[in-house]
Amino acid sequence: MPTVRKGAEAISRREGVSLNxxxxxxxxxxxxxxxxxxxxxxxxxxxxARVAQALRFLDRVSPDAPAPDDQLPDGYVSVKGTAEYKQAxxxx
Length: 92
Fold this sequence. Notes:
This protein has four helices and no strands. By secondary structure, it is an all-alpha fold. It starts with a helix and ends with a helix.
């Protein structure tokens, strides 16, 4: 369509790329979007049980001490004691 071509030419000029390059990038972005949508439709649905499982996994204690750059900052407050956390970890 002529109007689409004119718009694409104007944007490609403004971006400093050829029309072919602009079209290639636009098609690549559209493909990435469609592939992401397909992946989202295939992935397991989020459930309370899956969240609880993930929280239990993240709560595992490593036998290794954290690296110096991985220390928690001063004043950090854990959410473990909150009612929301306790409810989530139980999978309710």
